[in-house]
Amino acid sequence: MKIWLDDKLVDQEDAKVSVFDHGLLYGDGVFEGIRVYANKIFELKAHIDRLFVSAHAIRLKIPQDPETLAANVQATVDANNITDGYIRLVVTRGVGTLGLNPLVCEKGQVIIIADNIKLYPKEYYENGLKVISANTVRNHPLSLPPQVKSLNYLNNILAKLEALDRGVFEAIMYNHMGYVAEATGDNVFIVRDGIIYTPPTSAGSLEGITRRVVIELAEKSNYTVIEKDLVRYDLCSADEIFLTGTAAEVIGVVDFDNIKIGDGKPGPITMDLLKKFETYVRQ
Ligand code: PMP
């Protein structure tokens, strides 16, 4: 496998970063997860834009301009002959000292990995997921803003551990005011009486690119989509719940905190949007 490191492709064996990199020492950096469908990188510009905004928010200078970075992502995909796969684009603060000070890190470190993707098994899409409510509260917007896709995912990882401890793969995270924020790696939607609701990203979620595409596809199909704060009760009483994300795409939730959602199968609007999303990404 070829990995993009800094300004060139190298063999996987040679793709090494310093133990003094602040991405490793402090989770100081930003990243993107991007899909390749049928030979095309999905929403590359949106991912590059979000990466640059995240980096700007933490005062990290990406050492390539957006066009060059996009071309390097494409070059990594091409070098590995990835026609359907997953790209991890990482920019760390770079090499510094053992102190916290990010200003001593001279240059951000760019890493691009393009690989095949291990998806949720097909039956999860047909039968739906079980999820739980996490006790771990989503990061406060004045600590690490959830809109920053930073390399520090401990907040999400702690919630993910709660899910795994309880025998499920995903957890719903709430913000410091008790409103639904997102899942550990996905955005959340519910359906009630035919209307689709999702929390605003100000409730503590990443501005998901899949979320945005799904909202656009839903509106094009004449569904009403409303962004509003949701509480746990809204999930308990939903006709449908689904999650969206680059890896998961659109996936139904059929059990929430041991409460059956709908008739215990992914609902009709969830399945319709999944079908529309699958068609859209390959067109
Ligand atoms: N929320 C979190 C915390 C995420 O890590 C992700 C990406 N895996 C998402 C939401 C979904 O965002 P996107 O659709 O851009 O992948």
Would you kindly provide a written description of the structure presented here, covering whatever features stand out?
- This protein is α+β, with helices and mostly antiparallel strands and 283 residues long.
- It is built from eight helices and 15 strands.
- It has helices at 22-26, 44-57, 66-79, 122-127, 154-165, 209-220, 232-236, 268-281; strands at residues 2-5, 8-11, 29-37, 40-41, 85-92, 109-115, 129-133, 170-174, 180-183, 187-192, 195-198, 225-227, 240-245, 249-256, 259-260.
- The strands form two sheets. Strands 7, 8, 9, 10, 11, 12, 13, 14 and 15 form a nine-stranded mixed beta sheet that branches. A six-stranded antiparallel beta sheet has the order 2-1-6-5-3-4.
- It folds into two domains: 2-115, Aminotransferase class 4, branched-chain amino acid transferase, N-terminal domain (D-amino Acid Aminotransferase, Chain A, domain 1), CATH 3.30.470.10; 122-281, Alpha-Beta Barrel (D-amino Acid Aminotransferase, Chain A, domain 2), CATH 3.20.10.10.
- The chain binds 4'-deoxy-4'-aminopyridoxal-5'-phosphate (PMP).
- Residues 33, 156, 182, 185-187, 205-206, 208-211, 244-246 line the site of 4'-deoxy-4'-aminopyridoxal-5'-phosphate (PMP).
